[in-house]
Amino acid sequence: MEREIDKNAVVLKEEDNVGVVQIADDVVAMIASLATTEVEGVSAMAGNITNELMSKVGMKKLTKGVKVDVLENNVTVDLAVTMEYGYNIPATCQKVQAKVKSAIENMTGLTCTDVNIRIAGVNMKNEKKN
């Protein structure tokens, strides 16, 4: 398999000449975003919406807070995350890194070399006592 640059997409060429598979960088970013928000303790991507609202709005919003660089079948992901208050930040970030790496590698066949996380905020739950 080899990589060519085609307007922010990874082009995978198979040796049997059946066809060409292109994976847009936004798709890799969306995979990273969805994998991140599935981890308990992550409130949302910075500048993003939660999973409950995703089906009601455009998919373009899903990649906010995610930067993806693809170079020679290696993916580097930079995430800006809002955490829930009360969760251990290092432990939660390790879970996010493992989940994002696994999701990208399993779904695209690319190698995820780095998953860098920036904590952009902490969501304080607003619980009302009656």
Walkthrough of the structure:
- The chain is α+β, with helices and mostly antiparallel strands and 130 residues long.
- The protein has one domain: Cation efflux protein, cytoplasmic domain (Alpha-Beta Plaits, 2-Layer Sandwich).
- 28% of the residues lie in helices and 36% in strands.
- It has three helices and seven strands; from the N terminus they run E-E-E-H-E-H-E-E-H-E.
- The chain has helices at residues 25-37, 51-54, 89-108; strands at 3-5, 9-13, 20-24, 42-45, 66-71, 74-84, 111-123.
- The strands form two sheets. Strands 4, 5, 6 and 7 form a four-stranded mixed β-sheet that branches.
- Strand 6, helix 3 (89-108) and strand 7 (111-123) form a beta-alpha-beta unit.
- Helix 1 (25-37) crosses helix 3 (89-108).
- It is elongated, with a radius of gyration of 16 Å.
- It starts with a strand and ends in a 7-residue tail after the last strand.
- The model is unreliable at 1-5 and 51-56 (pLDDT under 50).
Outline: elongated
Order of SSEs: EEEHEHEEHE
The rounded distance between the terminal residues' Cα atoms is: 61 Å
Give a count of the beta strands, DSSP E runs of length 2 or more: 7
How does the helix and strand content classify structurally? alpha+beta
The whole-number mean of residue pLDDT values reads: 81
Regions with pLDDT < 50 over 5+ consecutive residues? Answer: 1-5, 51-56
CATH architecture: 2-Layer Sandwich
Q: Kindly state the percentage of residues in helix.
A: 25-40%
Q: What is the count of DSSP helices, taking H or I runs of 4+ residues? A: 3
Radius of gyration: 16 Å
Text of the CATH class:
Alpha Beta
User: What fraction strand?
Assistant: 35-45%
> How many structural domains does the protein architecture include?
1
What CATH calls the topology is: Alpha-Beta Plaits
Quaternary organisation: single chain
Largest sheet: 4 strands, mixed
